[in-house]
Amino acid sequence: MSTLVAIAYPDLQTAEKVRAELIQATKEQILQLEDAVVVEHRADGKIKLHQAMSPAGTAAAGGAVWGGLIGLLFLAPLLGMAIGGASGALAGKMTDTGVNDDFLKNLGANMPPGGAALIILGRAGAPAKVIDRMRPYGGELIQTSLDDEAEERLRVALGEPVAAA
What is the pTM of this model? Predict the structure, then answer.
């Protein structure tokens, strides 16, 4: 089962650095990321979502490949690629995979201007290694689907005060 974790940071740069660490952990097969979004509450009050991957771009590339192959059958591969790419981009834009964008925007609206949050959806094969990568950046745990014990370990790693049992 995937775990959802939302951590607040004082600025966009810190949240982006942590996301880069987690992407590297994915390459090392320590973590399986399904989504990693940085939500920024800009000083002008606007909420900006920094997606790790673009569903529209991915779908457009897939659509172009399939369109090109189908176009070969009708001796018009370039036309097929153009139509496939456009329809793939449209389908990708309309599909919301990973963490719900409305949830992300509501979360961003509750952060102070200038702040950012990293929202992670995924599975960790080695949770202790992932926590060790996040530890140097601190942060404040906003929301999680972890059990109480795992959540407390994460809070300690982030440097948050934990109530005595």
Answer: 0.66
